[in-house]
Amino acid sequence: QFDLGSLDLPDILGTIHEEVRARLGEGEVAGYIDSLAMVPLDRFGMAVVTVDGEVFEVGESRQRFSIQSISKVHTLTLALDAVGDDLWQRVDREPSGDPFNSLIQLEYEKGIPRNPFMNAGALVVADVVLSNYDDAAQALLEFMRRRSGNPAVGSDIVVARSERESGYRNVAMANFIKSYGNLENDVEAVLDFYWLQCSLSMDCVDLARSVQYLAKRGHCGVAGERVVSYELSTRINALMMTAGTYDAAGDFAFYVGLPAKSGVGGGIVAVVPHVMSLCTWYPGLDDKGNSLLGRYALHRFAQMTGLSVF
Ligand code: GLN
After folding, report:
1. Interatomic CA distance for residues 90 and 183, integer angstroms
2. 69 annotated binding-site participant
3. Banded pLDDT at 158 (limits 50, 70, 90)
4. Which atom from ligand 1 is nearest to the alpha carbon of 264?
5. pLDDT value of position 1
6. Is 69 an active-site residue?
7. Which domains are assigned to the chain?
């Protein structure tokens, strides 16, 4: 067990906040989703939740934002809980080296996405959730509320509508996967669920809590219940390390060294197994679609604490 008492977390977070404040404005918002394109680049938040439930936070850690692809961790958990290893017949576990919204490997691999975190893989995971829960949307909402301990978690209708209006690539991708027979449900139903999960609105503390089970051997301390087995939690962490930040996963392993999952809303969650879960938020993205200052903050955090899975 790592001795957290040896770290001055408020001081470390304060230093990161100061460094980041000098760089606000860098990066680009996700311009392809209208409602995200309007988020200003003048705010940053960060939260740490220890396995004992203690919270450390700085900046706009209580401001809600669009969680986008971070939700892929939670839907993957729901899908694995429902169908177990059968999931791997329909989606692979390899890093892609291509952007999150790439279609290119789908044709070579006959409709089997490279991993559950690129959009293609998340659409297949969404299909599995739809097929295995009576009311998939309700199941996901319920899951998020229990994991975060916040009963007010919900979807932002404006973002969901905006995604639908600009979702040409996801529409194409879902149809392409369907053409290979790798979606059971109607393309529209899969996309609706996918847009709902992406448009959930949560803050850094909610999100750090929502993945505490991945730091705590599969046990969610927030709701006081087991979510997945210890083994499954290690596997989800492995996928986050190899594919959670898309074609920057190598760089994340190199500079941060922690399993992490990003979203184009500017959030990134990260896990220090057996110690803590974290979330950073800054809406300016780098060219790989990951939060620029979020990534910097996690890099500095890993550097200053010495925490890394390596
Ligand atoms: N909703 C976004 C999309 O489908 C999610 C992508 C992301 O956060 N990386 O393009």
Report:
1. 9
2. yes
3. very high
4. 8
5. 66
6. yes
7. 4-305 (3.40.710.10)
- The answer to whether residues 1 and 274 touch, using CB atoms and an 8 Å cutoff, is yes
The mean-pLDDT minimum among 25-34, 40-49, 57-66, 271-280 falls in: 25-34
pTM of the model: 0.97
Residue 98: how many other CB atoms lie within 10 Å: 15
Angle at 275 between CA 259 and CA 254, to 5 degrees: 30
66, 69, 155: residue to mutate for ligand 1 pocket, most atoms within 8 A of CB? 69
- Residue-wise burial string across 86-97, b where 16 or more C-beta atoms lie within 10 A, e elsewhere: ebeebbbeebbe
The ipTM (two decimal places) reads 0.94
Gap from CA of 118 to ligand 1 centroid (Å): 9
Active site residue 168: no
69 within ligand 1 shell (Cβ under 6 A): yes
72 a catalytic residue: yes
Distance from Cα 7 to the centre of ligand 1, integer Å: 35
Tell me if 247 CB under 6 Å of ligand 1: no
Q: How confident is the model at residue 2 (pLDDT cuts 50, 70, 90)?
A: confident
The percent of residues in the chain predicted with pLDDT above 90, rounded, is: 95
- Expressed in angstroms and rounded, the spacing between residue 241 Cα and the centre of ligand 1 is 18
Distance in angstroms (rounded) separating the CA atoms of residues 91 and 45: 33
**Residue whose CB lies within 8 A of the most ligand 1 atoms, among 28, 39, 100, 155, for a mutation test:** 100
Q: Tell me, in angstroms, the distance from the centre of ligand 1 to residue 95's CA.
A: 17
Least confident piece of the model among 4-8, 71-75, 148-152, 255-259: 4-8
